[in-house]
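Structure ticket #2291
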Amino acid sequence: MSTSPAHAPPRDPVPLRPAAPVESAAVLPCPLTSFVGREREFDAVRALLGRDGMRLLTLTGPGGVGKTRLALRVAEDLAGFPDGIWFVPLAPVRDSALVAPTIAQALGVRQVADQPVEQGIAAFLADRQALLILDNFEHVLDAGSLVVTLLSTCPSLTVLVTSRAVVRVSGEYVFAVPPLALPDPEGRAPLDQLLATEAVQLFAERAAASESDFTVTAANAPVVGAICRRLDGLPLAIELAAARINSLSPTLLLGRLDERLRLLTGGPRDQPPRLRSMRDAIAWSYDLLDPEEQILFCRLAVFVGGWTLDAADVVGSRDSGVGSAVRSPPYSRPPTPDSVLDTLASLISKSLVRQEPAAVGTSRYTMLETVREFALERLAESGDEAAIRQRHAEVFAALAEQAEMPLFAGDARWLERLTRDHANLRAALAWAIEHGATETALRLVGALEPFWYVRAEFTEGWTWTERAIAMDGEVPIPVRISALATAGYFARIVGDVARAVVFGEEGLALARSSHDHYWVGRMLLSLSGAVESQGHYDRVRAYVTEAVAVFEALNEPDWVEQAVECLAMNASGRGDATEAARWAEEGLARSRALGDPRRIAHALYVVSEVALLRGDSRHAAEALRESLAIYWREGRRYNIMWRLEYLAVLAADQSPERAGRLFGAAAALRDEIGIPLNLAWQVDDHDPAVARVSIALGEAAFDDAWAAGRALPLDAAVAEALAESPDPVNIVPAPPDHGLTPRELEVLRLVAAGHSNREIADALFISVPTVKRHLSTILGKLGVPSRVAATAYARAHRLT
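Resolution: structure written out below.
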């Protein structure tokens, strides 16, 4: 077989005749660097090319992902094409009409006068069992019809295409080449596992080529892993970064990746310009988009961590006030909401956007971060960025508001939805605060209180809220009140009771002045919590009694129940055990009638407080254990922490060693959440109990028990706290039928046993994506937010 250099044919080809027969051995370009990793992709592509009926296979992926290298590596290993393998580089070709002459030149086919070159190629390949590799096809997609013609007239021909865009012709199979496998995102993998990761292997090898004494060590391994993750596992980006090791340490290199497009330059001079820098690699794809696609591509870059189609419709579509500043490339109107899906699908087919594995109930899309940085640069140049970021912030303010009440009610599906968009919510808050969008910022913090509460992110919630509440600007009164309620809650949580009172009083005054009875009731309860921390029990009683009347008039049974609990706590604080018990039992009865596990768990805590006031520690412990079991099933770490501490205090005198372990476990969880001890609780209850346990055990034994508790996995700590129940099986009422299929039960049991998704896939002979789909369905059916909560559910209800 013979090949010829890759260049465009002469402008005026002379009449030629068919070439002499070629040798059967393939002559392929010989890369000068080693091929790293890609075992899975190599096996998959090789298997596809060996499949019956496979005639056209397209390897797609973003620029720099390694499509050409993979195609060449597979071709080197193929033995099923005895009549030849030809590699045709199309990057230099600028016109689809020149693809046929370029193929002919690579094959050595000479054109006959008055005969189309396509006929000569077809005649040459007609009886050959051959493989034709067409490299970099994305800019000559109109030549897809030529490929179909050749396949139709050459029955033994197979075509392998590398392209950033799908060719979209009949008979095409598509294989999306993924980025290289990345190390553990937590950075905790042992050194040998990290060194076995494809992305790290590539970085290490290319870095050693730049700096001969460079090696990945235990000291720099976490940084190298972080570099590879920040670069999305893109081989070109990793190679360009590794080449900088001769002038930057891994730590300095990682610190400069916030502007990665400026850093990732200086590729080998023998490579085409599009492979010498990441910016040029992405620009090659961007320049092939039509103007409408370019506009949507740039607008989608404001999303952080992915987006849904509904969000893309709002942020990316046309309106009269956005887009008029776009001048480069020549302006074309942005897509309408009806056409956003089509334009988005085109961006996916051109490897600039990726569709994530299907989540429960919706599809999500994302960009590689390196691609996103390029798109953000273009968005800034367009003059549209401020308007598009405002749209983005408003989309997520509306999402937070939609989720607020379901989250208050403990809806795990909304928790999962907001968790997926956590990065977008942070970006929306940051933009709104930085750019003075006061109403949007206050809408966000007002609605996100239950999200931050459920996730025990109190420091984050207070940080955002404190910044937003200090902003200037006129906003609708309900928006201001909602933000003040959040501010009062978090100020009290972090121990700033004086400011919590100020926020509560301002919110209550605004609610009364606007005759908003719902917010009058909410702010009465909010203010009562802060005032109670100051010991003003008579004021609290007046606030809460009024709140009960307000919510009863509004027919808000959930809020009435919460107000009744506040009356019980108020009576307990005043030392009136009889009144406290009456309100506590009424609150528990109301919560059970509502059927909300979160409300039941809190009402049980109130019952335990009142039981302690009456000297009934056994009843108090039983109520706390039932409360803990519910919160464990619900995955509420903040509430679990408190229940562990309460139970430790109760066990201090009867079971000091157990109490020491529970104190240690609670302290570890408190440190993880980042919330200090409440001063009153610390002085009145926590520290005296710790002192009694320390005296009972002795200092050394106490330290051992505390350390052992800190080292306990959370599920073990919860199990120990629940173990003192005389009948732990009845702590949590039996749930309704879970509705899990036999296969879903198998997956749940393996999850509960601590197996990873890969281990579950291997055990059940299914794929990892299938495991993920089963797990998403299981969480939805059980109404729990996480694997940990699912494990607790399985154990509590004897499903393991």
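Closing remark: The CA atoms of residues 437 and 521 lie 28 Å apart.
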